[in-house]
Amino acid sequence: MAAGSINFTRADVNAAINAALGKVQAPHMIRAINRAAANLAAGQFAYDGRQVTLRSASSTRVYRIDTREPMTCSCTAHERGLVCWHVVAARLLVRAAERHAAQRAACPMCGAAIEVRQYHIGGKGYQFFEVCAGDGSHYAKAA
Fold first, then answer.
1. 86 and 113 share one domain
2. Which residues span the domain enclosing 77?
3. Residues 87 and 70 in one domain
4. What does pTM read for this prediction?
5. I need a surface site. Which of 13, 75, 114, 116 has the fewest CB within 10 A?
6. pLDDT class for 139, splitting at 50, 70, 90?
7. Where are the beta strands (DSSP E) in 24-121?
8. Is the domain of 21 the same as that of 48?
């Protein structure tokens, strides 16, 4: 994915958190997911599709996690072989972005993405329509 094209919502992140919590039973993993969730809620992160940047919760350090597997972190917990919340948070953000991308509407005629566009309709003012992003010539309905 190109930088700048990564989108997700808080609902996508929450769904990724809930899915992760539903898959694990180990207490240390549950703690790592909960800590990642709390730190992501603070909004101190960036994700460009290749790298997640997170601020440390306990210092002024900044951690950069490459999202290619295996994800690694330079924090002391990860260096000691423990599960760190930074890598867990990076995985949650990747899953949230994947979930968001999977939910995008697709044109039933050509498969291109659906965009919402605004047009002025005489006597009705501005109206929103869903149109095909491919060529915009087919599939339009009021949004």
1. no
2. 10-102
3. yes
4. 0.70
5. 116
6. low
7. 45-47, 51-55, 62-66, 114-121
8. yes
